[in-house]
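Question: Now follow the chain.
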Amino acid sequence: MKRHVLVMLMMVLAVIATACASDDATTDDSSEGAAVETTDAPEDDVATEEEPAEEEATEEEAATDATEDDAAAEPTEDAPVARADADLVIWADETRVQALEPFVEQFGVDNGITVALQELEFDEIRSQFSTAAPAGEGPDIIVGAHDWLGELVTNGLVAPIDLANAGEYAEVAIDAMTYDGQLYGVPYAIENIALVRNTDLVPDAPATFEELEQIALDLQSSGDVEIGLALQADAADPYHNYPLFTAFGASVFAVNDDGTYNPDELGLDTPEGLAAAEQFGAWVESGLINPSITYDVMVDSFASGNAAFAITGPWAVSQEDPPGFRAQGVNYAVSPIPSIQGGTPEPFVGVQGLMISSFSEQGLLAQTFVQDFIGTEEVQLALFEAGGRPPALLAAFDQVADDPDVQGFGESGQNGAPLPAIPEMGSVWTAWTDAYELIYDQQGTPTENFQAAADQIRNLIAEG
């Protein structure tokens, strides 16, 4: 399927694939002007959170004030996060907190203000922000994903951003952070999933998915590995299943000529979508898909050499605690998922960036921070080192383009499609997850499960 956005992505990646070797990111350890503190949010099993980090405030007086204020504001299931007592407040997950801390400190020093960096679980940021911002308790800046924009912009929660140097970023990243023709975020990373294989067990990349399945099942049958393909399936995961779904010519929504998604045309119960559903049932029956594989099992089994293949993203490669693929020393290679029955798998392409609250009373400071600090090679490389996701800033990408992991995930992303940012996507995940769960449990038929999910999704979209 031809997509305008995909063409741009391919052009960008083709240009930057020849870049030079990576340089280490540097940080400023200045200890004046900012309070950096963390607020723990409820834990979850989201696969995108990697390295735990313990952050310490660097200015004693400001840190004491911030810690006292937020000790009472620690979130529970019933209580939202409260805004820290600082001039500028940023909400981020622990991985980004670790990377941003020194830059936040320096920004405070340079501007003579206090800055609070509050830590939340990544998947808590959007919901907490949606509640806190209108009440005047939210942050000035959040770190989030581009597919949040449909909800956030529609509800008037984020402010437009005027980025003078937008041409210095990967075009797909700017496109992803643009909603209804207006930029709402400064991007720092592009991410997608790919196939990772144990090169000691499988020296050469399989030419087709059918070949992959045979190798995986043979290694599993011989006892060389316990898991042939480590694909997280507990809980069922439409995001990681998406490239396998699209290989049959299906798409979550139909795509308009301009590359945008059409929420009026759902793809789950099209002939292509139902063919994919039947194949997922066949993979469960053959043992290729194991419904008991959690994210942690996927990481541990592959990193320990007990799985031949994994389908995952750069977060599983780069995480250090618990140790991911790189930290455990397994020999691996990253490549696109091979064709399935002649069809090309298309993973979702996601972009992460910083967005400014429309309720912020520090709009100019927030604009300065996201443009002058996030838009530098130093910061983008620090975020890359922390999370393993290729930088959105082209000059920073050039610094790491020779990394084989970046190349492998980049090649996979060339086949990808942007994760829909339209609000209707919020109606998709639960019903589609439930359909996969029923297929994994072998309840009903795969076709019936996808048809029921499609009916439920249409009803939810109609209800608004």
Notes: Confidence is low (pLDDT under 50) at residues 1-78. The two ends are 29 Å apart (CA to CA).
